[in-house]
From TrEMBL:
Residues 92-123 have a biased composition (Low complexity). Residues 86-130 are annotated as: Disordered. It comes from Polyrhizophydium stewartii. Residues 32-87 form the Ubiquitin-like domain. Coiled coil: none annotated. This is BAG domain-containing protein. Residues 184-234 form the BAG domain.
Amino acid sequence: MSLVVTFRGRRHEVLFEDEFEQLGGEWTDLVTLRQLRDRLSAQMGVNADHIKLAHAGVVMLDLDAPLSFFGIDSGSKIMMLVDTRPQDKWGPHQSQPSQQQPSHGHTQQQHPSHQQQPQQHHQPPQPQLTPEQRLIQRLDDQLIHTETVIVPMLEVYQRNVEAFTSPDRADRPQPTLTQKQIKDEHAKITELLLQSLLKVDGVECESDMVDARAKRREAVRFIQGRLDIADALKERFNHSIKELGSL
């Protein structure tokens, strides 16, 4: 009955106790994306119209859709971003529900030339973005990639280090990974984070692009923060190895 929302590198738990009492485990069928956005607006002190929410690497745009439509359930992780552009400038990140024609129990006759034609789905033309808006979109995409792809790997690495370095050695389970495998985990994660940081640094913003420059600073802080966590875990792991060697 709660969601985990990451905003500017910090995690916030959002509870839906009343909705859970009404529908139990199906409470996400009751809560819409708009309700989640408005609750986050009040909790974080951010203008609701500037809140962009992403789940599983996809920016969610349909505010009137229930959370279950996006595959969200209790414990799901949501990334919150701030985008001061109008929502129709955010780009086609979200898949829309398919629309099927109702069946009336009979088959319509079609012209022979149309029977072999595949159904065409025409996307409405997307609004043209300004150069600054395109840069903000690039930075948002990199932030979402980091949060949904690299951060889960970092969390697994953290659990492995904590299992290996637990002070209660008698009761802890045997580590599932060798020392080398844990070291390799750190090397892989830091390499991915550095690549992400380089991509963010490669986004060149003109001096008058205030919003884009602020977004780039936010992205750098977030990725650098994850690098700091990985390095701190590495130091903890290496210290534990030295202790084991001295026993």
